[in-house]
Design a protein that fits this description.
The protein is of the alpha/beta class. The protein is 42% helix and 16% strand. The radius of gyration is 19 Å and the shape is globular.
Length: 323
């Protein structure tokens, strides 16, 4: 997610593939010093959607350079959470010119979301819920209050729930939700300068689709692969009962541009496990979501790659046919 960008940047700077990945992203964002952005301490770096998207693209460029060759001939799913959805396509053949194409798509997404933030500033809060029916009870309350939005449905396993709520800056969500639910909720402000997955970003959704469509028209976007690699969305569009899964660029670019819809992370994971038969999930960049997945009770293996050393271990497993 965009909030992970600052947290993951420093760990990857000394990786053997970092120089090439940084150069590739730098070519598509000449007005920002990418190397300086990466080496600036998180406390001094401006929190913005654009900066986070640049950091995430560089990290994926590093990982894909070393991991993607080991995936040749394998069937796998590319998916992610929020900005991670677009970023995950860096592990496929979707961007014809590789990391540069990924960088263009991520930077344009970050630029447009920053633009939306400048027009109608939003903020996001993680909500941890104790007990049953977290999605339902929080969802009903959000509908009742109005002008706040459920942005991410991450987990509801009957014992606890994890969600993200978006509001306009200063709308008083923390006080309101604590007053309503008391000790059943824990509210944590997220270090994200963005009102993501809500009507606050609807104004830039069409522009992002137009950008991706121009990339397709220019031959810079293509199928994820000729076979074996599927894209799976992180959200449901109105009327859908399951997330989009596709190799087709037209369907994918439309889906990627639906910036205003909430992330349905648990539904995505349940779909790729129960319907597509995925038995192992690799999270690149953190362990935030692997921990959530482990609480879904799906009985699958999760692997987290948080730094180059953990990437070394994963690549070695593929080379030695241990995976």
């Amino acid at each position: 997610s965009p909030g992970q960008g600052p947290a993951i940047a420093s760990a990857w700077m000394n990786d053997s593939a970092a120089e090439q990945a940084i150069a590739s992203v730098q070519r598509v964002v000449p007005d920002i010093d990418v190397d300086k952005l990466l080496t600036t301490s998180p406390s001094e770096r401006e929190i913005s959607a654009l900066n986070s998207h640049i950091l995430l693209a560089v990290m994926m460029g590093i990982v894909s350079a070393r991991l993607k060759p080991e995936l040749n001939g394998r069937e796998y799913v590319a998916s992610g959470h929020s900005a991670g959805l677009t970023n995950s396509l860096g592990m496929t053949e979707f961007f014809k010119d590789g990391v540069e194409g990924l960088g263009r798509a991520m930077i344009e997404r970050g630029r447009l979301l920053t633009q939306a933030q400048n027009v109608t500033p939003g903020e996001m809060f993680m909500v941890d819920w104790k007990g049953e029916n977290g999605f339902q009870e929080i969802g009903d309350w959000v509908d009742e209050v109005g002008n706040i939005w459920l942005a991410c449905f991450n987990l509801d396993n009957g014992e606890e729930a994890n969600l993200v709520i978006t509001q306009k800056i200063g709308s008083g969500l923390e006080e309101q939700i604590t007053k309503k639910f008391g000790d059943k909720v824990k509210v944590t402000p997220l270090p994200i300068a963005l009102g993501a997955h809500s009507p606050l970003v609807l104004s830039v959704a069409e522009e992002y689709h137009n950008f991706l469509a121009s990339q397709l028209k220019d031959g810079k976007i293509q199928h994820t692969s000729t076979s074996g690699v599927e894209y799976v969305s992180d959200h449901l569009l109105p009327g859908e009962e399951q997330p989009l899964y596709s190799r087709g660029p037209d369907e994918i670019i439309f889906d990627l541009s639906q910036l205003q819809h909430p992330v349905r992370f648990q539904k995505t994971i349940e779909f790729i496990v129960k319907v597509l038969g995925v038995k192992r999930i690799v999270e690149l960049g953190s362990r935030n979501f692997a921990g959530i997945i482990s609480k879904m009770g799906l009985g699958i293996e999760t692997i987290s790659v948080r730094n180059p050393k953990e990437l070394d271990v994963l690549v070695a497993k593929f080379v030695n046919h241990d995976l």
